[in-house]
């Protein structure tokens, strides 16, 4: 990925976060006020949940910003890893949200409450539009960065919640079947849990310096071994510097040192083509003691 393309992508992502935060702040205010006017605990609770999402979006922006600070004597890689930590934190927030929705839904199952169907439907329908549009802002880049993916999941989850509120409101309007609100809430919580689980596992793996899912280690090894002049590789390590940057270190075994620069250039070019732009390579000649180097 070229530097100009990275800069363009970062600009698009920053704009998406700006619009997402701005629109959701306005909607939270509308939802809080509507909740008090229509005496709807559901709307007030959802507004509080959306406020938590705004916090998550703000944290993601903070992580993306701080990850571009220059390295220093203490943090020699800079602050890139903050993007991984924030994505893990956001995954945990989503799980807490699931717990909150389940708790509220189970409580409503045992004690169904009167809901003003039409009023709730109107406000929730606005929520569908707002959250749906916000989720759409992140669709394009959700596979490129875990923080963008977590932002997308947050807003997609909110869209599902709002759709659920609309459906339950319509049913209540025509049937007065108040328990439908709790049933839809449980279904939505399970859907959010399913979609969040992969984000949580991937965030934990990256926090522990596992090989990112975007990189196939076996494929990387085959590519390196197929480069002219490379006889063997060992001590290969691949990990995430951030949610969108991957690093690699490896020992490269060659016959001699005559074409080291040419081989190094070819290796780094191939690695960059496969999303690994930070490579540290140590070269060894074929006659070196393999047992000593754990080939």
Which CATH C-level class of the largest domain is it? Answer: Mainly Alpha
- The proportion of residues in beta strands is 5-15%
Mean pLDDT: 83
Along the chain, the helix and strand elements come as HHHHHHHEEHE
Write out the CATH superfamily name of the largest domain. Answer: Cation efflux protein transmembrane domain
Task: Report the strand count.
Answer: 3
Q: How would a crystallographer describe the biggest sheet?
A: 3 strands, mixed
Shape: elongated
Instruction: State the separation between the terminal residues, measured CA to CA.
Output: 32 Å
Kindly identify the CATH topology of the largest domain. Alpha-lytic protease prodomain-like
Please identify, by name, the CATH architecture of the largest domain. Up-down Bundle
Structural class: mainly alpha
**Uncertain stretches of 5 or more adjacent residues:** none
Q: Into which percent range does the helicity of residues fall?
A: 55-70%
**Largest beta sheet: strand ordering:** 1-2-3
In total, the number of domains comes to 2
Summed up, the helix count is: 8
Oligomeric category: single chain
